From TrEMBL, chain B:
Pathway: Purine metabolism; IMP biosynthesis via de novo pathway; 5-amino-1-(5-phospho-D-ribosyl)imidazole from N(2)-formyl-N(1)-(5-phospho-D-ribosyl)glycinamide: step 1/2. It is an enzyme of class 6 (ligase). Part of the phosphoribosylformylglycinamidine synthase complex involved in the purines biosynthetic pathway. Catalyzes the ATP-dependent conversion of formylglycinamide ribonucleotide (FGAR) and glutamine to yield formylglycinamidine ribonucleotide (FGAM) and glutamate. The FGAM synthase complex is composed of three subunits. PurQ produces an ammonia molecule by converting glutamine to glutamate. PurL transfers the ammonia molecule to FGAR to form FGAM in an ATP-dependent manner. Keywords: ATP-binding, Cytoplasm, Ligase, Nucleotide-binding, Purine biosynthesis. This is Phosphoribosylformylglycinamidine synthase subunit PurS. GO terms for molecular function: ATP binding; phosphoribosylformylglycinamidine synthase activity. GO terms for biological process: 'de novo' IMP biosynthetic process. The lineage of its organism: Archaea, Thermoproteota, Thermoprotei, Desulfurococcales, Desulfurococcaceae. Its main location: cytoplasm. It catalyses: N(2)-formyl-N(1)-(5-phospho-beta-D-ribosyl)glycinamide + L-glutamine + ATP + H2O = 2-formamido-N(1)-(5-O-phospho-beta-D-ribosyl)acetamidine + L-glutamate + ADP + phosphate + H(+). Belongs to the PurS family. Its EC number is 6.3.5.3. InterPro entries: PurS, PurS-like_sf. GO terms for cellular component: cytoplasm.
């Protein structure tokens, strides 16, 4: 789904179509109808210029409110970077994303680790698997209060920055979170920029692949 | 009906760090010798012009807008809604 200011839509489409051979289209948010799709990705960028708060305005569009209401349909939903911010703002995922501790936009490769992988986006990932991906954001400091963390995230799929790689001050080193069933998942790193060997710098490997391999597998065989 | 000016001030809750405020405090104010300034918190300011029958009604409308359209994020923000003077 594309909003004014979304800018990672072509990269996501490229990876889905050219790298993994899936059928995918970029859909303008005004033309979006949820029931036409087997899975939906909210890509990164700066929807509505990040005004008010990153993702806050896109979260109040008809398209996203329809997505939130359609939660019961069980359609796999992935939010990447600004897409994650939108999913948090509309309440499909818990917590909030605040300005980085550094107060700056940070763009670099990091290493994460998967915990409790399940659902369509992580079906093929192993518990404890390390995934390398780049981040590129100014508002990526994940925040959740301890009570919600204990009740919502200790049983859910979670992506954490590995020791020393937390780029923004996120609590509990959280880089991505999912619903308990993993059908809705959001993450700050960019898996679409880490799905081809050519794009990974020295010392890193393309850790985003498992997410697209998982959705490809899951849409054909279930999860 | 008349136009009322209503201010909305959004700040991080006390338990939520505010790196911008900390930087202004530590690297500007304290550095220039104003050690009596004990802390700085930044926020976002919105000024809404509201057509309403009374000031109270204007404030009620703005509060509703802030809640329903999630102008602030209750998980991390405090909000103050007050009449502009």
């Amino acid at each position: 789904m594309k909003f004014p200011g979304t800018n990672c839509d072509e990269d996501v489409r490229h990876v889905l179509v050219d790298v993994f051979g899936l059928e995918a289209e970029i859909v303008w948010y005004k033309e979006f109808a949820v029931k036409q799709w087997d899975a939906v990705i909210l890509p990164g960028g700066f929807s509505y210029g990040d005004w008010l708060r990153a993702g806050a305005i896109a979260a109040r569009t008809h398209a996203v409110e329809e997505l939130a209401e359609a939660r019961y349909l069980g359609i796999p939903l992935l939010g990447i970077c600004n897409g994650f911010q939108i999913l948090v703002e509309v309440g499909l995922l818990p917590g909030a994303l605040l300005y980085n501790d550094s107060g700056r936009f940070v763009c670099r490769w990091i290493r994460t680790v998967v915990e409790r992988p399940r659902g369509p986006w992580l079906a093929l990932a192993r518990d404890g698997q390390e995934l390398d991906m780049p981040i590129a954001h100014a508002e990526g400091r994940y925040y959740i209060d301890e009570e919600s963390y204990n009740s919502l995230l200790l049983n859910a799929p979670v992506l954490r920055y590995l020791n020393g790689f937390n780029p923004n001050g996120s609590v509990h080193d959280i880089a991505g979170v999912g619903t308990e069933d993993g059908v809705v998942f959001g993450l700050m790193p960019h898996p679409e920029r880490a799905s081809e060997e050519l794009l990974a710098p020295k010392m890193f490997s393309p850790g985003g692949r498992v997410i697209f391999e998982s959705i490809s597998y899951s849409l054909k065989r279930g999860w | 009906m008349s136009a009322h000016l209503v201010e909305v001030i959004i700040t991080n809750k006390s338990g939520v760090r505010d790196p911008e405020g900390e930087t202004i405090h530590k690297h500007l104010i304290l550095k220039k010798g104003y050690s009596m300034v004990m802390g700085v918190r930044t926020g976002k300011y919105l000024l809404m012009t509201v057509s309403a029958s009374s000031a109270e009604e204007a404030i009620r409308v703005v509060k509703e807008v802030c809640e329903k359209l999630r102008i602030y994020n209750p998980i991390v923000h405090d909000i103050e809604v007050r009449l502009h003077t």
